[in-house]
Amino acid sequence: MNWTTLKPIDLSTIKAVDFPNEKYYPLEYPKKQIVLHHTVSGPGIRGDVEHWLSLADRIATCMIVGDDGIANQCFSSKYWGHHLGVKSTYLKAKGFNDWTTRNVELNRSSIAVEIDNWGGLVRGDGTAKQFGLKADGTPNMVTTIAGKFYAAYGNAVDVEVQQYSQSFRGYNYYEKYSEAQIKTVGELLLLWKIKYSIPLDYHPEMFDISMDALGGKSGVWSHTSYREDKSDCHPDERLISMLKSL
Predict the structure, then answer these.
(1) pLDDT by residue (tens digit) across 74-108?
(2) Alpha-carbon dihedral of residues 61, 66, 70, 75, nearest 10 degrees?
(3) I need a labelling partner for 4 at 20 to 30 A (CA). Which of 23, 39, 51, 189 fits?
(4) φ, ψ for residue 73 (rounded to 5)?
(5) What is the rounded CA–CA span in Å between residue 160 and residue 158?
(6) Which pTM value belongs to this model?
(7) Helix crossing, 237-245 with 179-196: angle to 10°?
């Protein structure tokens, strides 16, 4: 696709999500950064919304982009919710003297958008593999089928797969972002550039820890820019091409 033809999103195409005020912070704050995430779930956004509603810590993003490219809005981009989860001990280790307030500052000065996606995948090989823990704390062991792909919870998925010859954040396989999702993300970025004067220059280091991102430098970043234990977003070439075109 020729991403240079992208325009700011048509506001009439955005779908409102019933999301109560007490599940985010309805307080306006100047925006400097846009942070891209993916949900590690799918298909559909309902499960993600219900998970956020079950939490007490106001963890949410203002937008979730479905596989069909529809932008689903939980709350206005001028407000904020927790979405980064950068630990104070980590910030202190990175040399930030203001580490006690840095995570809150990063969350409230950024706009977060989720791409509905299973994220990292494991290719089955006929052996039993562990996929996290069960509710009782015991290992969640799944006997995999050779050639099938499994998501983080041990469920087999039938999706388009992106393979990386060198693993990215511990995975060689990821669900591909749909072209419709990439297009919508680009349209949202163009809207927020106009609304908040956020620069959209591409940062090649965004898929690794970035001291600029942690320091609050304006621009477009990924969850991977802030935390070594996260794999969203993965460096899909089409996503990168879109970001470079803006």
Answers:
(1) 999 999 999 999 998 889 999 888 888 899 999 99
(2) -20
(3) 39
(4) -105, 120
(5) 7
(6) 0.96
(7) 30
